[in-house]
Write a structure and sequence with these properties.
This protein has 997 residues and is of the alpha+beta class. Among the domains are: 1-160, Ubiquitin-like (UB roll), CATH 3.10.20.440; 163-290 and 422-495, FAD/NAD(P)-binding domain; 295-417, FAD/NAD(P)-binding domain; 667-757, Alpha-Beta Plaits (2-Layer Sandwich); 899-983, Elongation Factor Tu (Ef-tu), domain 3. Helix content is 22%, strand content 28%. The protein is built from 24 helices and 50 strands. The strands form 13 sheets. Strands 8, 9, 12, 13, 14, 15 and 28 form a seven-stranded mixed beta sheet that branches.
Amino acid sequence: MSPFRLPGGGRIDRSKRLRLRFDGRPYEGVAGDTLASALIANGVHLVGRSFKYHRPRGILAAGADEPNALVTVMRDAARTTPNLRATQVELYDGLVAESQNRWPSLAFDVSAVNDFVAPLIPAGFYYKTFMWPRGAWKRLYEPRIRAMAGLGRAPTLPDPDRYTRRYAHCDVLVIGAGPAGLAAALAAAASGAQVTLCDEQAEFGGSLLAASDALIDRKPAQVWLAEAVAALASRDNVTLLPRTTAFGYFPHNMIGLAECLTDHLADRQDAPRERLWQVRAKEVVIAAGAIERPLVFPGNDRPGIMLADAARTYAVRYAASPGRRAVVVTAHDGAYRAAMDLAARGVKIAAIADVRALPGGPLHAAAVAAGLPIRAATRVVGTRGRRRVSGVALSQIAPDGSAGASESVACDLVLMSAGMTPSVHLFSQSRGKLRWDDELQSYLPAASAERERSAGACRGIYGLHAALSDGTAQGEAAALAAGCRKAASRDFTVSAIEPAQGAMPDAAPADRRIRQRAFVDFQNDVTTKDLALAVREGFRSVEHVKRYTTAGMATDQGKTSNMNALGVVAQAIGAPIPQIGLTTFRMPYTPVTFGTLAGGARRDLFDPVRHTPIHGWAETHGAVFEDVGSWKRARYFPRGGETMAAAVKRECLAVRNSVGLFDASTLGKIEIVGRDAAEFLNRMYVNSWDRLAPGRLRYGVMLREDGFVLDDGVVARLAADRFHVTTTTGGVSRVLHMMEDYLQTEWPDLNVWLTSTTEQWAVIAVQGPHARKTIEPLVSVDISPQAMPHMAMAEGRICGVPMRLFRVSFTGELGYEINVPADYARAVWEAVFAAGAAYGITPYGTEAMHVLRAEKGYIIVGQETDGTATPEDIGLGWAIGKTKTDFVGKRSLARPKMSAPDRRQLVGLLTANSNIVLEEGAQLVADPRQPVPMDIIGHVTSSYWSPALERSVALGMVKAGRSRVGETLHVPMPDETIAVTIAQPQFYDPSGARLHA
């Protein structure tokens, strides 16, 4: 077996030996191991290199708080996952892992030279150095820094695994299955509540998994644990989710859970890898526990220096001895338990150095009785060893706080503990307020913002009996708050030696003879000197100090560094910690894979492709498609090897001279129904709708609250209480969302219903001088000019199919839009195509549509508008109801700047050389000879070759454009400067005679 595997004990299965490779070398573990515990059992402590100085790093912790042991796990070339904590990687047979942030090897890392020049690259080095010489950042510094940045390397091949997701509801969600979480789940379940219990570990139990001598209800703690989990599993009203991390607390008690399904298996057999749970809970109990706080002393970052409780966990739970001879450095009673548990398993305790002058308590007394060598008022003033600690220098602390003469103690393991830090990250994410506790030297949950309650160590309640009792109380309270019955309360009998609580952040001694650095953030190489430097340079806010020094950033997110950093900064400033504040806990506190968040939304499903009902016909007729939002739309229909330009020219001329057929099904459509439908539209659109008669159409313009154009479209009044509203292809979701928002929050008194009908109605646009002749034989309604003038509509049938027929045009020609149920769209399309054969009917695509509408000066929201255009800017001021008292955006339009004379306005642009087609987005200037940067007075929004006019045309937004018609402007291009004349935007048939034919 592995050389540091203990001969007995642990929650492992020694009969199942598992192979693994780490950095190419073979090792052996057993079932129940993590990668970290297997490496420790094999005597491997050097597992990585730090980010900045590339110093050797070893395993520090045993769970999600591990800052050093980040590895890349590789199943095959495509299944490579970087930045996994070795402490959370469950071992399976054949596991292959590599260390990170080193080259060419972990033992010999060339970049470790950074450690020798550390005095030259202190905190803030990047900010101060890479500002000179001017211009060198982009050319020299940035490429090299980016090449060196990062820890693991992202995989380059597509992820072949599957991910799934699930939505769930429950009465009580319990986060964390330690003693408090289990007790809360038991109590809530006994009340009849629907309970979901999740924990990020493979087994429920938390600290009970490493309980060595505790009794609960006169049973060994692990026997009680097994019975409690079995009792929960047997209940129909309980869902148990091991290997599940609560990574985010969202509004209204929505919790994001990431469940690992198959990462722990050697053969996944194509099963999903992970599952994203989105759980809506009536009540939440957070039982997230606490994290052991490291001590800050010179040389505290060497491999072999670990958190005391982590070392105890490896020995008790995994039967893996972290070393042979240990020195324990502590400011907290919990380290005495670790020392006794390791001593009982054969680890020689060379010394217990307690920084406190008068340690006491039952654990201290037990350690004294066990004969362990305890030194009070003693601290570490230095360590030795390169790739693993080989000794420490201990010194008595004088009454004035200075360090006396030091004594060297040989060891291969150092255990440290400064107390516990409650895990308040989820509570903080929920927008709950924290309070500072002087006795515990920690932030604790105070006022809740959600229907939530914390239990156990995460709210500063320590000790097994106290945690069980608090968990029970919080579980009962949560069930009652969720509307469940009150269950009979119960208490626990517990036999365990509990540590006295409290924490004591420890800074390195201020002795100038000590040369070694004391690290606060192990991952980012932030030392006490870096934090002091930040304070000297004027940073007082902890958020500013964090960004200046990088303390608490990257994957660690301050789990082991935050509280010590606060203590050092507070000491440097001379202010209490509460005055310094606390950094923000951002989700995910524990990393979540991109695959879990993306789920099935990958490859073709990343942005689902939408086809119109006529897509198949267009495909068979050779259409070239383009992506418009999530839709595939026919861009043009080439014939016999035509280029796009030739095909578009032919299509445009067919519409102008005869008749064209266009698929407009992607237009957004919303049915607005109800007694107050017209009033609702009055409030949402700039137009007036009261006098629009049934059977008529009106062009509508919608603004945002800031007065800028959001969307436009044609609106049909079907009846006094019913409207058919169209929107731009990409705008329907935002328009419907805005309508629903106002209807539900601002005007709930209006009697109105909104229904999206985009997929219900297909739209076939028939445009051109022969449009009426083409469809007249097919429809059941009178479409003569007298019966159906421009902007009229009628309901009837076409080819026996129900239809809504709009006489409307986006080309400037006589035109109709035939709305039919989507199931009949292709049949109707083919019938219209057959009926138009006598007139040479021509299908046309979006490219020709753009040219035709630009010739008429029609705008497209999102192309002519950029989010800062008012209706007046784009020539739609006429649409604003003159007598309307209010509509969305009206107050904003009243601001002086919104009607300033120098605002950019829509104009036409004609190049002096009619063969030159301007580039869309090109800038317009008055004088091309002016020095750079030039005074930009406008830009080109749309530009095309016009087959009807046999020249180029363009639209643009120009400062005070309408007053400058006839002026010459210039478009500076790399090879030439192009002269353009400002014109009216209506290039073709400005009188509209063809439109009203």
